[in-house]
Specification:
alpha/beta, Immunoglobulin-like, TIM Barrel, Oligo-1,6-glucosidase, domain 2, 3 domains, eight-stranded parallel sheet, six-stranded antiparallel sheet, globular, binds alpha-D-glucopyranose
Length: 583
């Protein structure tokens, strides 16, 4: 999309215009629909690392329930809970062995029901993480498939195939695991001789379901209904783009080794974005619509370009999809403007809301990513002790600004637990503690995602910073964690926690989530991104120096550390502000 941000010819510039801000035509008008999910702010809880009520070192459901009053002070509409189902925990619970249960690590079904109903009393919906692409190799369906013969109905629930070549020693195709290594694992026959292979896009302990089999579809419909009956407010759909594989599972020559890694153009990948997905999503939407309270479906879909992703949220499909293009964008004015403009154009075309997200449990937190000088780091799995370390002050300053700017955009937003405390990753975690299968499967070549999953700090002078009563933590907290504790931030009016609270309250009061968007053309300020949303001007200064704000517009709110602005009428370096438009 071409955006009106660049310098016109000097001869075209209005010579005596005192303001470097000129409003361009609207790039987005509000939808006629005003359903809750069009403007929702959804807070992701990673149960392992939120709050441990038992002292085991692992967070749990009762811990979350106990902290609901604190979550409610943030002003979020819903909580998305990462998996808490029975699981051998080979991929931190994304390897599910029973979709309709609760792992004793996290509590009981009673605890889940209490969490859902207590959250409702605060007006907060609970969104359940459904993992339909694969289960655990300990799921009853997979153990039955292993015990059954090739060609059986049990094996047809998964992708089993004979190997190629002499002795069937070559995997059935060249597809790789996203966690590293082959995507195929061979299993023995009952007599001990080498048998068939099964496909797993992730770890070998995560066999992929065969979604062409109606029995798989029925299983998941039952699971959706199970959680909707329990009062769930909807579902986040894990790896939704990979559920169907192209008929025949042909080799993929698109990448040299057939490895579908982020950054590779996915459009032709036979394991991603297959058209058959859409009839499943349509069915799931119908199921959600049978229930009160407008339960939502949000897809984790790594599909590009954005215009193709929009098909996923077209009428009758999912309600929302994560906008990973926004998350991937570096600290760069033009790149951000482009992704915002493109996102709104793509989603507006199907009358779906755009969502915005900066952090989650799979990527380095944005306070860490933005702590690298220049344009910030490109997304990798994470940062380890042998990597160049981020400038944590710069990272946190930019992260606060990025969040304030994001919350001033029209659409929905996702927040990841701990970002409201200004947390970055644990970037010095020793290898011995790492649990992410990407680290293990790549023999340490890929550092993995443990750094962004560290248990969060609550009380600065308590064991494990108040995360667990015994001081146990499943991953070690970094030494500086106490300084980010919630109790300290409660008392500091300029803390990141209070910044998030103010931003969320004002966003709701000003109706920014359901608002409009027009860019300001400000060619004289090449590192300033300014938009107008209704009567609010939202300005992000990506430069390392103060810049003038639009004149005459009263300041509503600023992300600067400490007292509002660098000076009257000047927005500080790496900061963001909202102003009331007077004209
Ligand atoms: C999703 C999850 C990630 C998990 C993967 C495999 O991408 O967000 O944490 O490892 O699916 O289930």
């Amino acid at each position: 999309m071409s955006l009106p941000l660049h310098a016109p010819d000097a001869s075209d510039a209005p010579a005596q215009d005192p303001s470097p801000y000129a409003l361009a035509p609207a790039a987005h008008e509000p939808s006629a629909g005003d359903q809750w999910w069009r403007r929702a702010v959804i807070y992701q809880i990673y149960p392992r690392s939120f709050k441990d009520s038992t002292g085991s070192g692992m967070g749990d459901l009762a811990g979350i329930t106990a902290e609901l009053p604190k979550i409610a002070t943030l002003g979020v509409d819903a909580i998305w809970l990462s998996p808490f189902f029975p699981s051998p925990q080979k991929d931190a619970g994304y390897d599910v062995s029973d979709y309709r249960g609760v792992d004793p690590l996290f509590g009981t079904m009673e605890d889940a029901k209490t969490l859902i109903s207590d959250a409702a009393s605060f007006g907060i919906r609970i969104i359940i993480d459904i993992v339909p692409n694969h289960c655990s190799n300990e799921h009853a369906l997979f153990t039955a498939a292993l015990a059954a013969a090739p060609g059986s109905a049990e094996r047809a629930m998964f992708h089993f195939a004979d190997g190629l070549g002499e002795g069937g020693n070559t995997p059935p195709n060249n597809w790789q695991s996203l966690f590293g290594g082959s995507g195929w694992t061979r299993v023995p026959n009952p007599d001990g001789t080498p048998g068939q292979y099964y496909f797993h896009l992730f770890d070998a302990t995560q066999p992929d379901f065969n979604w062409r089999n109606p029995a798989v579809q029925e299983e998941f419909e039952k699971t959706l209904r199970f959680w909707l009956d329990a009062g769930a407010g909807g579902f986040r759909i894990d790896v939704a783009h990979a559920m169907f594989k192209k008929e025949g599972m042909p080799d993929w020559g698109g990448a040299p080794d057939g490895t579908p890694r982020p950054g590779y153009p996915f459009a032709d990948a036979p394991m991603f974005g297959q058209p058959e997905l859409h009839q499943v999503f349509a069915r799931w939407r119908e199921i959600c619509e049978e229930y009160p309270g407008e339960p939502v479906l949000c897809s984790e879909a790594n599909v590009r370009p954005l215009s193709r992703l929009a098909d996923w949220v077209a009428p009758g499909q999912m309600h929302q999809s994560f906008n990973f293009d926004f998350l991937r964008t570096l600290w760069d004015r033009d790149a951000l403007a482009e992704v915002i403009g493109d996102s709104l154009a793509a989603f507006d075309a199907v009358d779906a809301p755009t969502t915005w997200v900066l952090s989650n449990h799979d990527v380095s937190r944005h306070a860490t990513r933005f702590g690298y000088d220049g344009r910030a780091m490109d997304l990798g799995d994470g940062i380890g002790p042998r990597d160049a370390q981020p400038d944590t002050v710069l990272g946190r300053t930019r992260a606060r600004a990025a969040t304030v700017f994001m919350l001033g955009l029209p659409g929905g937003a996702y927040l990841y637990q701990g970002e409201e405390l200004g947390l970055g990753d644990n970037t010095t975690l020793e290898d011995a503690y790492r649990q992410d299968p990407t680290f293990l499967r790549s023999n340490g070549e890929r550092i993995g995602r443990d750094g962004c999953r560290v248990p969060i700090p609550w009380v600065h002078d308590a064991p494990a910073c108040g995360f667990s009563p015994t001081g146990e933590t499943w991953l070690p907290q970094p030494e500086n964690w106490a300084g980010f504790s919630r109790d300290l931030q409660e008392q500091d009016p300029d803390s990141t926690l209070n910044l998030y609270r103010k931003a969320l309250a004002l966003r709701s009061e000003l109706g920014l989530g359901l608002g409009s968007l027009a860019f300001y053309a400000n060619p004289q300020l090449p590192e300033v991104l300014a938009i107008r949303n209704g009567d609010t001007v939202n300005v992000l200064n990506l430069s390392g120096a103060p810049v003038p704000l639009p004149e005459g517009e009263p300041l509503l709110f600023s992300a600067a550390d400490g007292p509002a602005l660098a000076a009257d009428g000047l927005l500080g370096a790496n900061s963001a502000a909202w102003l009331r438009a007077t004209a």
